[in-house]
Each structure stands twice: as structure tokens, then as C-alpha cells.
């Protein structure tokens, strides 16, 4: 799960998906992680508002931001991102990777409500983080149903 800085959207999506997989007792079938396209926030914990939103929904995460690597394109089956800018950047990076096996697409592709883009809530408020959480939950559930 990839976003620009890996401190808001993608850590929320990662934590949501990990909880869904755990609740379904499918941990042995899935390796879940999140990363950034940029290197701006490498080593930082998620935004405090993202952590608060997750805690409000009973989800914890110990994630620290990292940048996507060439190995990610070679080892993951799916790389899901949040917006068109991320998608362009990931497609460009994947073209530089020999034997890329990851299918790269927008997480919003799986949204039953057809909201394709998951907007960055960084400059918003708690309500915007809640919107991201709800979108990620819908999309991750639909993605898991499709590939389970």
C-alpha cells in the first residue's frame, strides 16, 4: 500500500488490511506492508491524527515510514496506491525494475462506492482522516474478498 509520504493514508490502509486479514485468520496467506513514493518521512511514525483515527477503531500499528524499493516490485503480488500521482510514480519506477511481478493499481479501484481517489488528509482535520479510514476499510474488504 503506497502513498506519497507513508505517514497518513498508506499506514491507515496497511493497518486496516492487516486487521481484516487477522480477523479472518488469513495471516499465513498475506504479507502486508506500506511504503512511500518519496523519502520525505523515512523513519517517522504515522501522523498522530492517523494513529488517533486507528485507535478510535480499535486498531494499533507500529509502522515507521519507509520508501518503496526495487525488491518490493519483485516480491509483492499487488502494490495498491492512493491517487493518480502515486500511480504514475509507481509505474515509472516499476519500468526500471527487472522482473517486476507486482500488479500496480489504485486501491480505490476496489471501492464499492466508486470513489477512485483516496485524498491525502494531511492538511485537513480529523474528519478527513475518518473519511480515509472509511474508504480504506471499504476498499480493503472488497480487495480481500476478491483475492481470498
From TrEMBL:
The active site is at residues 9, 120. It comes from Hippolais icterina. It holds the Pfam family LMWPc. This is Low molecular weight phosphotyrosine protein phosphatase. Its EC number is 3.1.3.2, 3.1.3.48. Acts on tyrosine phosphorylated proteins, low-MW aryl phosphates and natural and synthetic acyl phosphates. It catalyses: a phosphate monoester + H2O = an alcohol + phosphate; O-phospho-L-tyrosyl-[protein] + H2O = L-tyrosyl-[protein] + phosphate. Residues 2-146 form the Phosphotyrosine protein phosphatase I domain. One of its GO terms (cellular component) is cytoplasm. It is an enzyme of class 3 (hydrolase). SUPFAM superfamilies: Phosphotyrosine protein phosphatases I. Keywords: Cytoplasm, Hydrolase, Protein phosphatase. It is found in: Cytoplasm. Belongs to the low molecular weight phosphotyrosine protein phosphatase family. One of its GO terms (molecular function) is acid phosphatase activity. The gene is Acp1. It comes from the Eukaryota.
